[in-house]
Design goal:
It is built from 1 helix and no strands. 0% of the residues are buried. With 56 residues, it is mostly helical.
Length: 56
């Protein structure tokens, strides 16, 4: 049994299944950004610490 075709037929009303699939994909993408944000925060923290130690 194959997955249903969720291509919207009417762009003004794509349907609940299509919208739920879009929401799920966006949620997964946003969760993938959390580790990247933590790495960026750690990098900025290291830069601030280095600045305080060596340039003040």
């Amino acid at each position: 049994m194959s997955a249903p075709d969720l291509t919207p037929t009417d762009p003004r009303n794509p349907g609940d299944a299509f919208l739920q699939q879009e929401i799920d994909e966006n949620r997964l993408s946003e969760r993938a950004l959390i580790p990247q944000a933590l790495i960026a925060f750690a990098f900025v923290a290291v830069l601030v610490i280095v600045r305080e130690i060596f340039f003040v």
